[in-house]
Design brief:
The structure is a single chain. By secondary structure, this protein is an all-alpha fold. 71% of the residues lie in helices and 0% in strands. It is built from four helices and no strands. It is elongated.
Length: 76
């Protein structure tokens, strides 16, 4: 895969992910020009951390009973 610029690569990878093939973003990380193994591993860790934080937030939201004020504020 020959790339002329990082911007062109990002555009092409974005199209593969979203518009054409539906490839998960993580599956395209190694195709980013110049990415090192260390960067790839860092990205994996960051994605796992983000996922863990999101899962915790969702669990806390489900476990927290809503007060009438909270329901009213959300509706406004």
């Amino acid at each position: 895969m020959e790339q002329r610029s990082l911007a062109q690569a990002a555009d092409a990878l974005g199209k593969l992910r979203e518009q054409q093939l539906g490839i998960p973003a993580k599956g395209l990380w190694r195709r980013v020009p110049g990415v090192t193994q260390n960067e790839f591993e860092d990205w994996e860790q960051l994605a796992e951390d983000d996922d863990s934080v999101g899962q915790l937030a969702n669990a806390l939201q489900r476990a927290t009973p809503e007060t009438p004020d909270a329901v009213e504020a959300r509706a406004a």
